[in-house]
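Thread: quick sanity check before group meeting

JM: Hey all, I'm pulling together slides for Thursday and realized we never actually wrote out the predicted structure for the chain we discussed last week. Dropping the sequence here so it's in one place. If anyone has concerns about the input, flag it before I start.
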Amino acid sequence: MQLSRDRRSPFCHPGSASAFGLNSAAQADRDYAATYNASVTQDDNLDLGRQTQTTTRIVVADPTGEAPGTITVDTENRYLYLSMAGGHAMRYDVGVGRQGFEWSGVVHVGRKAEWPAWTPPPAMLKRRPDLPRHMAGGIDNPLGARAMYLYSGKRDVGYRIHGSNEPDTIGQAVSSGCIRMLNADVEDLYNRVQIGTKVVVLR
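JM (edit): ok, ran it. Output follows.
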């Protein structure tokens, strides 16, 4: 399987992401999420690192048409959906790849890690020689509290769904292709999915 940055790819679904809702509706949802009182529904003992106790997750009617247990990333509207039984989905706000780092495809979760270490890939080090060659897991690590490593077959494709120590980037297109979530949200998703979970990334 080959990932694609081309809208004409068979792994791209032109218009599919926008069919989930107009950007204006997405912004209205984000405005609502900003007022959401997560402390009522969230475990006070959850370790959020530097973040306040907040979440964007909400149960919605599933717009993806995917089987329960599938993750779908709508990069246009910057949502991640976890399809559930009964036509519902858990939806989370995410950060996505910036211009030039967009991609689409069907992959799967090949590995999971709690408070993962981070080793920037050579291409990133070439762009940013100031970055460390390796960083241990922890609250300063850009992968945040959890990471789910995306694979095609047995090959790590280099992208992750992960937490973030920069919560203000959620809802933005600023990453090098990884899907960023709030630490509270990525911990919740991490606990709901297994190795082998199908991941559909739409442009």
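AS: nice. The chain is about 15% helix and 30% strand. The CA atoms of residues 20 and 63 lie 6 Å apart.
JM: adding both to the slides.
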